[in-house]
UniProtKB/TrEMBL annotation:
Protein known as: CDP-glucose 4,6-dehydratase
PANTHER family per UniProt: DTDP-D-GLUCOSE 4,6-DEHYDRATASE-RELATED (PTHR43000)
GO molecular function ontology, one term from the record: CDP-glucose 4,6-dehydratase activity
Keywords: Lyase
Enzyme kind, highest EC tier: lyase
Pfam families recorded: GDP_Man_Dehyd
Organism listed in the record: Roseburia intestinalis
EC number: 4.2.1.45
Originating gene: rfbG
NAD(P)-binding domain ranges (all copies): 14-329
InterPro entries the UniProt entry points to: CDP_4_6_deHydtase (IPR013445), NAD(P)-bd_dom (IPR016040), NAD(P)-bd_dom_sf (IPR036291)
Keyword ATP-binding: no
Length: 363
């Protein structure tokens, strides 16, 4: 790993939701950097899971607990004394939020209340990032990207609960933390749709592609014309860590940020499925096709993009992998899984490849 990531060596970091897809990539990267990582999470949400397949449960300490359990969360932070917290614990699926709206709000809103309450009570925390979503914005189906100062008002229970999470974070900061002598910086980061190996969740296009591929079935694409800002999971993960570090060094960097791909990488779901099929053929030699399947269901946005000018202007950031490379790396990981190859080495190699480009971009 590049020497610039030595900053995290030995640093005490708490990740909520570390057993999930994005949390597993975050944990893998921080462990490679030599950080002292503790997770707070429920058991891995899928079977199989990247957390289990890559042996992360044996490489880091995880406190298995519910983000709604304020007492256990506070005891964990009191014991660990982390300088850095990354809040990723969530109910993250739009369609699931229609089935379990109360649970979704409990986890995504009260979970944020609990983590902010713990930060308020523990002076050890100096840098905090709350991970939300591009879906926090009131979506007008505009052709241009949403900026950080747009109105927050997600449509569905998941999106709306994440809008509320943003408001809770801002309220706690203004009510309890601003104007004090606390050396603490807080940011929220809104990421576009992420893809990558290790995602086994239901109702997501890439895991659906993977499941169809390994079973020899056609991919069923629910909304082939919906446009989304697809990016590899390492794009936002490295941004979270970049902001966590920068605001620790200088609080002027704290704020709200979008992170998403360039305009050219905002594709329809059908186009993404096409790229996945080509990648599967490349890595396995097997053909794969998809069909449009209209099954109805609750409202989901058709058009959603982010304007990432603030992130680019503030940090000189630019994305590392275009969507073709992001899908290729994703398919490569799933092909290793399907062919029972070493997933730890595959994950480590992809992190190394990504960070080479990240450092070349001047971060």
């Amino acid at each position: 790993m590049d020497k610039n990531w030595d900053f995290y060596k030995g640093k005490k970091i708490l990740i909520t939701g570390n057993t999930g897809f994005k949390g597993s990539w975050m944990s893998s990267l921080l462990l490679e950097a030599g950080a002292d990582v503790t997770g707070y999470s429920l058991e891995a949400p899928t079977e199989p899971s990247m957390f289990e397949l890559c042996g992360l449960k044996h490489e880091m300490r995880t406190v298995y607990g519910d983000i709604r359990d304020l007492d256990l969360l506070n005891r964990t932070i009191c014991e660990v004394q982390p300088e850095f917290i990354i809040h990723m614990a969530a109910q993250p699926i739009v369609r699931e939020s229609y089935v379990r709206p109360v649970y979704t709000y409990e986890v995504n809103v009260m979970g944020t209340v609990n983590i902010m309450e713990c930060i308020r009570k523990n002076d050890c925390v100096r840098s905090f990032v709350n991970v939300t979503t591009d879906k926090v914005y009131e979506n007008h189906e505009w052709e241009w990207g949403y900026r950080e100062n747009e109105r927050l008002n997600g449509y569905d229970p998941y999106s709306n609960s994440k809008s509320c999470s943003e408001l809770v974070t801002a309220c706690y900061q203004k009510s309890f933390l601003d104007g004090t002598d606390r050396n603490l910086a807080i940011s929220t980061v809104r990421a576009g749709n992420v893809i990558g190996g290790g995602d086994f969740a239901a109702d997501r296009i890439v895991p659906d592609c993977m499941r169809a591929a390994v079973t020899g079935k056609k991919i069923e694409v629910r909304n082939p014309n919906s446009i989304r800002p697809y990016q590899h999971v390492l794009e936002p993960v490295t941004v979270y860590l970049m902001i966590l570090k920068k605001q620790w060094e200088d609080k002027k960097y704290a704020g709200n940020y979008n992170v998403g791909p360039d305009e050219s990488d905002c594709l329809t779901t059908g186009q993404l499925a096409d790229i996945f099929c080509r990648g599967w053929k490349k890595h396995t030699g097997k053909d794969l096709v998809w069909d449009s399947v209209q099954k109805g269901g609750p409202h989901e946005a058709n058009y959603l993009k982010l304007d990432c000018s603030k992130l680019k202007h503030t940090f000189g950031w630019k994305s590392c992998w275009d969507v073709e490379m992001a899908v290729d790396k994703t398919v490569e990981w799933y092909a290793c899984y399907h062919q029972k190859e070493n997933l730890v080495e595959c994950t480590r190699k992809q992190i190394e490849d990504f960070l080479k480009v990240f450092e070349q971009n001047g971060k």
